[in-house]
Specification:
Elements: E1 3-7, E2 11-14, H1 19-30, E3 35-38, H2 49-62, E4 70-76, H3 83-90, E5 95-100, H4 120-129, E6 133-135, H5 149-164, E7 170-172, H6 178-186, E8 191-195, H7 197-201, H8 225-235, E9 242-244, H9 253-256, H10 271-281, H11 288-300, E10 308-312, E11 316-317, E12 322-324, E13 327-329, E14 337-338, E15 341-342
Parallel strand pairs: 2-3, 3-4, 4-5, 5-6, 6-7, 7-8, 8-9
Antiparallel strand pairs: 1-10, 10-15, 11-14, 12-13
Length: about 350
């Protein structure tokens, strides 16, 4: 039996929802990671420090007492976010970043930014406070092919943004393309990226194998094999610009298996195991600990975790469904196996 012991990971991109849904899934994350950057796209979105702290309290109240888990809170950037809002956030140790969604880009993003120019005073304040901007890197123009949204975003939005705010810390979240990897590699040290397990393991053919696969549908959407290979290479490169962010995003089964299904893949149940499988498949297990447990903490200015976890190379069977509030969700790899598992 092969084992691997590493520093306990962090998840630098996570969706937890709220209420009964939150309570039913939070321990999947708390069992795996010490800390997680919590996405603010609730209904209504988390736009103030007060709202973020209230949400943090609800998360902590839902975590089983056996786990030592710290939620790292973020605010939802809007056209109306003020410099004063940023100053208040920057003075609170529980707020770690602001999230940029283009309006209408993904789940609960209707109140996202319509024009980056409207956020410039907020971005100036963020640069002064040292608060990172987490970008959902897609344009939403109707005339742009969905598979080209990330590349167009780099040219139309991200490149000018970096020019105007050269010292702003930016996380290019869930990168999916060779263009995204190349942009991060060519940028200064204040630009980093998170990488999901699905964008390492899957390409867009996995949306259609044997029929439409709604539980492999996420945004940004899966890309071609050439892009998947570039993302995989970035993850295993040992470059500290790239680190773990699952983008685990739960939806009820009925909201995925429908005429207009939601985007999002739930992977919190086997997040670190999926990365271990992916890194092992290309002979890069020695790079996993830094990617999962060091680089993200370093970028955010957090101390590295002291606790250790052990992974075992042994097949783990994934359940067909997982409880989600008063309903169920279908997890990533439902009914299949993962070749690694976390030692309990």
């Amino acid at each position: 039996m092969q084992t691997l012991t590493i520093t306990k990971p962090d998840d630098f991109h996570l969706h937890l929802r709220d209420g009964a849904a939150l309570a039913s899934i939070i321990d999947h994350t708390a069992a795996q990671v010490a800390r997680a950057i919590i996405m603010p796209n609730l209904k209504p979105p988390v736009v103030t420090t007060e709202m973020a702290l209230e949400y943090r309290d609800r998360i902590l109240a839902a975590v089983d007492e056996q786990y030592n888990f710290e939620p790292l809170m973020t605010l939802y950037l809007t056209d109306n976010t003020s410099a004063e809002d940023i100053k208040t956030a920057g003075e609170n140790k529980s707020i770690h970043a602001l999230k940029y969604y283009p309006a209408g880009a993904t789940t609960n993003s209707d109140q996202g930014v319509t024009d980056f120019k409207k956020t410039y005073k907020a971005l100036e304040a963020m640069m002064e406070q040292g608060l990172p901007l987490l970008v959902h890197g897609e344009v939403t123009d109707a005339d742009v092919d969905i598979f080209d949204r990330e590349a167009v975003f780099i040219d139309k939005v991200l490149t000018p943004l970096v020019k105007d705010f050269p010292d702003l810390k930016i996380v290019f979240e869930h990168i999916t393309t060779r263009a995204g990897v190349d942009f991060v590699l060519s940028a200064k040290e204040n630009i980093s990226a998170t990488i999901t397990p699905q964008h390492i393991l899957l390409n867009r053919n996995d949306l259609f194998k044997g029929g439409l696969r709604p539980h492999n549908y996420c945004l940004p959407i899966l890309k071609v094999e050439n892009d998947r290979q570039a993302v995989e290479a970035a993850a295993i490169s040992g470059n500290p610009k790239f680190f773990l962010g699952t983008d685990s995003a739960p939806h009820e089964r009925k909201h995925k298996e429908t005429g207009c299904g939601c985007a999002g893949i739930f992977s919190a149940h086997i997040g670190i195991e999926l990365y271990a499988e992916a890194f092992d498949a290309v002979g890069a297990l020695d790079k996993l600990e830094a990617f999962a447990s060091h680089y993200g903490a370093d970028f955010y200015g957090l101390p590295r975790n002291q606790e250790k976890v052990t992974l075992i190379k042994e097949d783990l069977t994934i359940p067909e469904t997982i409880a989600f509030g008063d309903s169920v969700l279908v997890p990533f790899r439902a009914g299949e196996t993962c070749s690694w598992q976390l030692k309990k």
